[in-house]
Amino acid sequence: MSSQSDSPSDQRDAMQQRHEEAANEVLPEHTDPYIGGDFTAVAGEETFETIDPTTGEVLASVGRGREADIDRAVEAAWSAFEGTWSEYGAGRRQRVLTAIAETIDEHADELARLETLDNGKPVSEATIDVRGTAEQFRYFAGLVRGDSGETMAEGSRYGQVIEEPYGVVGQIVPWNFPLLITSWKLAPALAAGNCSVLKPAEQTPLSVLRLAELVDDVVPNGVINIVPGYGEEAGAALTGHPDVRKVAFTGSTAVGKQVMKSAAEHVTDVTLELGGKSPVVVFPDVDTRKAVALVSSAIFYNTGECCEAGSRLFVHEDVADDVLDGLVAAIDDMTIGDPLDEETDLGPKVSGEQVERTMEYLEQAQDEGGQFLAGGDRPDDEALAGGCFVEPTLIEGLDHDSGAVQEEIFGPVLDVFRWEDYDEMIELANDVEYGLAGGVISEDITQANRAARDIEAGYIWINSYHDLVPGLPFGGYKQSGIGRELSADTLDHYRQTKTINLSLR
Ligand code: NAD
Questions:
Q1: What is the mean pLDDT of residues 359-368?
Q2: Which residues contact 462 (CB under 8 A, 6 or more apart)?
Q3: 237 CA to middle of ligand 1, Å?
Q4: Higher-pLDDT residue of 26, 147
Q5: Catalytic center residues
Q6: What is the CATH number of domain 8-274+482-497?
Q7: Atom of ligand 1 nearest to the CA of 408
Q8: In the chain, domain spans
Q9: Beta strands in 332-391 (DSSP E)
Q10: Which residue has the higher pLDDT, 215 or 9?
Q11: What is the Å distance from ligand 1's center to 174 Cα?
Q12: How confident is the model at residue 1 (pLDDT cuts 50, 70, 90)?
């Protein structure tokens, strides 16, 4: 371990060495697509590199899946569906889902460290992700048996309504919660009786490939297929595939629109979890210390790379100075650094490309007269110079129409607005294309509920944030998506209703 008295280059070397050692311990053995229960080379024999965003070093070369690999995976999935999986009753599916959850728990530490290496998130947060991943499989295992369809006796007819799986579904996952969002997709798909072809994000394929290695013994061959690759190649081949009966996508709104178009070709059902630009509203009656902690976590958790991040703060004028001073102090206290260190609060962003994107927004905000109350640059710390770090940033004074306010930065950047008139504040809070989430901080429950109703978004936290519980549906209004995940309704997105009308005459 390096200490504060070491020179920046010593600290950097020590961090690099720690990452190399961790990589030796936790990298998956296989980095080719997992198809039909085997890891096999991609048809084109090409690879792409996945980078550790803390050190800038290459972690692994990964098979670059394209259309031919997607075709093979879809075929393997249908073969598994028709051969075995569709014969599995609810009890057997429940046992498989439970076994996946237990396997994840047994390997939680290794999976968390792998996620930290590939994504850059602090290991304390990766550990929460892994726990949540196992919890998803357990939650849907619990739902499997509750489903027995409906019947109706009506005059001379007898009706049965049954829910059938689609067969093979295509699932696309982003880089911000690689393992967790994989579980949001796979658990309900398998619970509903489908086989899956899943494409992880090109920036972060490793934890999902490791998961495939780990569950190989407990999931029948071909039920889960993982094809790493780029969005425009493997991703587009999957969303437009004629034999994929349902597409589930999480990612940006721009790509979500392309996914819808591509799925339209074969009238394939689609659910989308897209971007957000969520408001957090602070009322004047708050305990400002609590409010600061909540606002800070709403934006800075996972380095701001959360679709639900509370990235626009609406703070009442009466408490604005206290809350903003508190936020500046909280930012000063943050430990920015090696995400493998348990004490780290803020790790690097996932990639150089994402750093550039954030920096472009910060420059734009500067040009448009934004006042930077904190941050606004890359950290001035040579020890971190090789990684994708960006300072936690507070900006006040921007026009609400500014690009940095309207668009998703997906980084540790909070836009601040003061308010006095409730109606004007709500109008601004809703004046974005997104509607994924929002936060309300107030001790007055009636007032807080009113604001929760008035914010146009699919998920509102009152006096908490990021707390996603299996059973409470998560998904967006407006351009933040279609459909809900994490809840019993999600099963309905993975099956189709069949009515059998039997004449008794
Ligand atoms: P992205 O949309 O670029 O990529 C997401 C996934 O889609 C990746 O696996 C990528 O390879 C794939 N993809 C890209 N182009 C594709 C195409 N043409 N066809 C099919 N697949 C394609 O987004 P990102 O940069 O990976 O993730 C960040 C974005 O995702 C943010 O905007 C964020 O808000 C959003 N997001 C939303 C949620 C949610 O639950 N609503 C969760 C996480 C991330």
A1: 97
A2: 439, 440, 441, 442, 445, 448, 449, 452
A3: 15
A4: 26
A5: 273, 307
A6: 3.40.605.10
A7: 32
A8: 8-274+482-497, 279-469
A9: 371-374
A10: 215
A11: 5
A12: very low
